[in-house]
Amino acid sequence: MPGVPLTATDLSKRYGTADALRLDDLTIEAGERVGLVGNNGAGKTTFLRLALDLIEPTTGAVVLDGIRVGGPDLGWKHRVGAYLDAGFLVDFLRPQEYFRLVGGAYGMSAATTDARVERFRPFLGAALEGGRLIRDLSLGNAGKVGIVGALLPGTGLVVLDEPFANLDPGARIALERLLREDTGGATVLVSSHDLDHVVGVCTRVLVLADGQLVRDTPATPDTHAELRAFFEAGGGAMAA
């Protein structure tokens, strides 16, 4: 499936009197690979959870490929593959069983699912060895299973939160390649604290601070140095 566009208009999430996120107007074009960066509490995961209808917005809406997320039309769900944390896994299953569960949810046969998993076997590595349950895998290997579960259906949007965490250097490099070259043109939305990998993967970087978008920039050879200087200065508001 080719990439799909995502928009957020007048989007906010408030807890009590505190705004966790406030986005007036954001458009992510079909096929863009967008990185979200920011210090802890900046609003990155809040935005991802709003985009997946895991929490309800206080105001505004996210629209995916013309369909309002959280609205009566549930067609947007088959346009998204996502892995945010271990809560997305079913840890009493083996990885292959989990992949078949995910594939079935997207209308894929077991044979089709198994064939698609083979594309990711080099990345999965030891996660597929020994027939172990997901709960018995290392954090890194369990994370690989979740990431492949998000990529497996070939959706128009792939959403990942801190996908490079707990991966060894080889797996991080392999994941960069997968996200750049093997998503079938999907729109990719990645939140990460790892500036090297964000700039290495993404075509565009959004910087959040205190729940607000403070910078929206193409990823260029100069972006890493600019982001490093920003966070060395404290990670507050910066000129766009």
Automatic annotation (TrEMBL):
ABC transporter domain boundaries: 6-235
SUPFAM superfamilies reported for this sequence: P-loop containing nucleoside triphosphate hydrolases
Pfam families: ABC_tran
Single GO MF descriptor: ATP binding
The keyword ATP-binding belongs to this UniProt entry's keyword annotation: yes
PROSITE patterns: ABC_TRANSPORTER_2 (PS50893)
Highest taxon, organism lineage: Bacteria
Keywords carried by this UniProt record: ATP-binding, Nucleotide-binding, Transport
Keyword ATP-binding found: yes
Stated name of the protein: ABC transporter domain-containing protein
